[in-house]
């Protein structure tokens, strides 16, 4: 059953993504001369794609709190690529991604078409340009989402926040919203830290196959009640991490990262 589910979802996901991408290309011509409208339109198409894709792969999104209204600067803990589906489904936004994603076949082109900002985390020279890019996206009325941990994890804790990309918020005195993410799978399925979270040396293709074999899984996103304002990016990073950590629900407890999956694997 799991193999059949995988095949059906791959076909549906590929077809729906292709149709959405072509729709975006065609309709973008109508707003190409209006930068604000074009950016907002691309963000709305991404949001619609994310909502439908979440249903297609069996992801049930449960929301606590109210998502911020655009334009916003939002930070969240990072557990894997499905985080994008969860947050994009809750409102039009753009994401900041590592530079190598731009070079991925197909995925890179899709990301570039929906306002994604790319940064090489090893090169400090990229940071000023990305900060300007963030300010430009915000100026066009679109929200920006940042995962300041800089890497995804198994969901045992919230990793330290890197402050560099919070410079845009600190410099413009823009309040920053925050959210926390966590995942749960059914009792007879592969545990969420192995099948939903993408971390460590997991390969993308193999992990995606396991994810699409799951019958269903739950994604929980909690939006913070307050927005945090600081002129110092390091202090801002510390305050945001503390706020995220305070409402974070671990995917699993510390020391359980090597717990193996059940033989059923979600079938």
The CATH topology name reads: Glycerol-3-phosphate (1)-acyltransferase
- Alpha-carbon distance between the two ends: 6 Å
Spatial strand order of the main sheet: 1-7-6-2-5-3-4
Name of the CATH class: Alpha Beta
How many domains, in number, for the residues?
Answer: 1
Please state roughly what percent of the residues sit in beta strands, choosing from under 5%, 5-15%, 15-25%, 25-35%, 35-45% or over 45%.
5-15%
Please tell me how large the radius of gyration is.
Answer: 18 Å
> How many distinct helices?
9
The outline comes out as: globular
Got a strand count? 7
Class per helix and strand makeup: alpha/beta
- The CATH architecture can be given as 3-Layer(aba) Sandwich
Average pLDDT taken over every residue? 89
Work out the helicity level: 40-55%
- The string of secondary-structure elements, in order, is HHEEHEHEHEHEHHEH
Low-confidence stretches: 261-267
User: How can the largest sheet be summarized?
Assistant: 7 strands, mixed
């Amino acid at each position: 059953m799991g193999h059949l589910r995988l095949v059906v979802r791959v076909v549906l996901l590929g077809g729906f993504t292709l149709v959405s991408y072509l729709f975006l290309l065609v309709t973008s011509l109508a707003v190409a001369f209006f930068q604000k409208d074009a950016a907002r339109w691309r963000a709305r198409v991404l949001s619609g794609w994310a909502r439908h894709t979440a249903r297609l792969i069996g992801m049930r999104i449960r929301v606590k709190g109210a998502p911020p209204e655009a334009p916003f600067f939002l930070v969240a803990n990072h557990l894997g690529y499905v985080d994008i589906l969860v947050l994009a489904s809750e409102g039009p936004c753009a994401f900041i991604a590592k530079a190598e994603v731009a070079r991925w076949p197909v995925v890179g082109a899709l990301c570039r078409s929906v306002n994604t900002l790319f940064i090489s985390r090893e090169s400090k020279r990229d940071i000023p340009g990305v900060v300007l890019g963030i300010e430009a996206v915000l100026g066009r009325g679109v929200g920006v989402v940042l995962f300041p941990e800089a890497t995804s994890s198994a969901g045992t804790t919230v990793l330290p926040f890197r402050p560099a990309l919070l410079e845009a918020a600190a410099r413009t005195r823009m309040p920053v919203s925050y959210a926390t993410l966590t995942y749960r799978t059914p009792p007879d399925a592969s545990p969420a830290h192995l099948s939903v979270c993408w971390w460590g040396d997991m390969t993308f293709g193999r992990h995606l196959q396991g994810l699409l074999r799951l019958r269903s899984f739950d994604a929980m996103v909690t939006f913070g009640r307050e927005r945090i304002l600081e002129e110092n990016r390091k202090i801002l990073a510390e305050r945001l991490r503390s706020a995220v950590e305070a409402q974070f629900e671990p995917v699993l407890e510390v020391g359980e990262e090597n717990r193996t999956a059940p033989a059923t694997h979600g079938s």
